[in-house]
Amino acid sequence: MAKKEKKIIYYKDELNDDFSDIGLERPKLDEDFKFIRSKNPIYTFFAGWLFYLVAKPIFYTINFFRGIRYHNVKKLKKFKKVGCFIYQNHTTFYDMWTVTACVVRGKRTNVIGFSDTTSMKFVHFFARQLGYIPIPDSFRTTINFQKALDYYINDKHQNILIFPERHVWPMYTKIRPYNSASFHYPAKLKAPIIPITTTYRKRKLFKKPGIDIWVGDAVYPKEELSLKENKEFLRNECYKQMCEISLNTPQEEYYIYKKQED
């Protein structure tokens, strides 16, 4: 029986091409958008109930059937009372929920992403409870956004999950290049970063490969470096760890990515 050929995905720009195609608009945020969820105890109780008693069991079940395995998760134990920035390569739309609900245990992790969810009130409401924070798009929203990160990292000791590659490339088995822009936040707040890398392994009984999630070693900003130098330092260390895991782990390609020449 002839072996089915793999789908080829052509790209032009590793930094800006996006293959997520979830079909939602990315509206501009209101100038007074509240990045910090309500501090009302009833609201907080509801958000915690939704996350721990509903979302986590659902995502654990989904990830079991998706063939996801977790590696080196114990490295996160010592950060239960420390706010960290987590950086992960972006290969599925569900990456954010895999990390927040299944990899990080015993504390909340907030996710930075595009404003897609704000286009639908129902979706946005529940995404907010689960820790979704849209990217700011103006000077005023950026100020409030940075205050929220400070609050979650230093006051609540929660995590912030960031995808430095910015866009989804489904089941991509390499690490795309990314700049140091998103590393401004841990450099400014003097917070540790933790790289997490997704790889894909072959499964005998399934067409789609299984998924492995690898927790890397924490990297701390250096006191002797300036803000700009720390951004570059953190970015380089994060990228190096991701590339080492990606290159040294046997992987199964489901899609073939090829650069489209002009």
Structure characterization notes:
This protein has helices at 41-65, 95-103, 121-129, 139-155, 184-189, 227-248, and strands spanning 7-11, 68-71, 85-88, 109-113, 132-134, 159-162, 193-201, 210-215, 255-259. It has 262 residues and is an alpha/beta fold. The protein has a single domain, classed as Glycerol-3-phosphate (1)-acyltransferase, CATH 3.40.1130. The protein is globular, with a radius of gyration of 19 Å. The model has no long low-confidence stretch (mean pLDDT 88).
Task: Describe the structure concisely for a colleague.
This protein has helices spanning 41-65, 95-103, 121-129, 139-155, 184-189, 227-248, and strands at residues 7-11, 68-71, 85-88, 109-113, 132-134, 159-162, 193-201, 210-215, 255-259. It is an alpha/beta fold.
